[in-house]
Amino acid sequence: MIFDTAYYHPMDRDYHPEPIEGAGVKDVGMSVPLGIAAGDVHGVAAKIRSGAGSLEIGFPGAVRGQRQQQTPGMWGFEQRQALREMADVNKVNLTTHASYGIGGMAGQDQQGNFSDEYRKTAVDEIKRAIEFAADVAKGGSVVVHTGEYIRPISEEPWAAQGKLFKQYEEEPERAIVRLVDDRTGQVLQQIRKNQIVARAVWNKSDRDFTYVSEVDNPEIGVRKGDNVHVRKGDYIDYENKKVSFDQRVPEYNPETNSFNITRQTWDDFVEEARIRNEQLARERKVTVSQLRSLYPDEYRTPEEAFMAATTESQERVALGWAGQYSRTLKDNFKNLEMVKKAKDYWDKLEASIPEDEKWKIMERDQPMLYGALGKVAEFLPKSKGAKTPSELLDNAMEELRNEIKNEREMVTGQLENAETQRILRDHAVSARKYALKRSYESYADAGMHAFYQTQAKRTEKPLIITMENIFPEQYGGHPEELRDLIYGARKQMANKLAKKGYSEQEAEKIAANHIKCTIDTGHMNMWRKYWQGSDKEFDKWFLKESEELAKEGLIGNVHLTDNYGYQDDHLAPGQGNTPVRAFVKVLKKHGYDGAMTVEPGADASTDLGDFHGLAKTWRYFGSPVYGLASPHRVGAPARNWTDVQYGYFGRTYPPYFIFGAYSPSNDWQLWSGTPME
């Protein structure tokens, strides 16, 4: 076999892919994590000299930077100026990636709890990156990782109850959902869907009927004299009067002289939440979907219904005990007053009797004393050793006061327990509600800062917060969730702008210009491991979701990475099974002209360097090669990246001559003068 003859045969063919318009060398750049891929201005300059036409400057560090995990705060005025001028001279486009250590803007910590302090730290990190982008990149994308909270995959509407996606085989039946205390952000309870809860069967009407109300009931909007229509299935009390959801009573069973108890599963709480939301929607005169969007705090989720069930049971037990002790307490207050009156009577009687005669009263009148006090007399035998009735009554009052004290503590404690359960129920919200409310607020704050920096520093391009789809296990990883975060944050930002005096139309336009998303193809491909269909069907889903985001104009930045659908291994595009080429074609079809950045992670370890990840991408997209020493021959195949990618010698195989340290000294030559090589 003869290599490199420069001859071209008609049977030869070109194996490199067709070029994608708008995805050439100047269009596709690479990321530069500061402290890892480059440590200073000279390191960034080296990436530019390698041939990259655009760079995404990333910050691996958070809060306080280190040598290998730098933060924006480590780059002072002079370094920023040098970086900006170097990019201008070389006509290199720069974008920015905020701290890799910030995952989501809801403030969730590693224990799963939510902290306002942690959320403030995250927002501050984004603001630092925005200011760096304004100084160095003169605008453009500022990438922010999503990952607002951990949630089960199969429970989301787009997962179709595990028919499209599920994290593990039993997830639809065993998924864990979390409830959060909206006062503290602490996780109150983790509920597994296969838990069973014992609960009362609620008293419901078994027919339709009408009655005239004898009392006011504001809970159901009824006044005295109103005709009340009861439908089959409505909650009623033991007198067949309609009651509200919160007034319902357990069903009485006369055969057992008790109340009916049943076992409830997750499906029962889903149904209860549905009934509750329909009732609230009727009261608000809106649809259930409108209730969820307009009154999110009132919308009931199944996990909140579950929490209500458990706290209601404990509250009812506490109130029952409080009522029992209250009844005894009331009787003892009456008994104490009776003993006090008896004491006054005997004090007066004993005052008129000589001391040496008082013992006779005790013997003579004790039966009368016991008879007069009735039930209170049960306290008297406990008071032995008394010489006179007044002493006996003093001891009885002491006993009664102790009983009242104990009962008071029991009643108070049980009432406090009942109130605690009620408060807990009122403040227990789903993790989704709690997290997203804060995420919208945080992203809106970041968007406002981007807007102000764009104006203050008159950047060439608007600064854009681009939320990056993160891993499937966290909220924000799915395109539908990404869309929700964008629109929720834009709405919140528009509200903030409206308070500043902007019109509704102006505010919405500004918010749309400063809040978009970053699509990471590698992160998107990680959904493959949870996909329940074929690989071909997954590719269709991948492109369909991407196209919908592109149509809506929500994509403001792109990360091009590859993997095999399991982990975020950061292969160069074309080295795994991610449909990156088809994805880029979809974006170009809808006019996307923003940054496209290769994140070369694996090539820095398994190839000659991170830049080869970018070169592989150029080759994968069919970008032409220019500037070769040999002239192009008519009819010959185009030279491609395999000829030049791994060196400046136009070879992918070992050279046919000796060079460098292996080359012999000129002092040692053959007698014929023939070179050793």
Overall 3D shape? elongated
Give the integer mean of the pLDDT values: 85
- Count of helical stretches: 18
Stretches where pLDDT is under 50 for at least 5 consecutive residues are 648-652
Structural class computed from helices and strand pairing: alpha/beta
Tell me the layout of helices and strands.
Elements: E1 28-33, H1 41-50, E2 54-58, H2 77-90, E3 93-97, H3 116-137, E4 140-145, H4 171-174, E5 176-181, E6 187-192, E7 197-200, E8 209-212, E9 227-230, E10 252-253, E11 258-259, E12 261-264, H5 266-284, H6 288-294, H7 302-351, H8 358-373, H9 389-427, E13 428-430, H10 431-456, E14 463-468, H11 479-499, H12 504-514, E15 515-520, H13 521-525, H14 535-551, E16 555-560, H15 580-589, E17 596-598, H16 603-606, H17 611-620, H18 641-644
Parallel strand pairs: 1-2, 1-17, 2-3, 3-4, 4-14, 14-15, 15-16, 16-17
Antiparallel strand pairs: 5-6, 5-13, 7-12, 8-9, 10-11
Helix pairs in contact: 1-2, 2-3, 3-10, 5-7, 7-9, 10-11, 11-12, 14-15
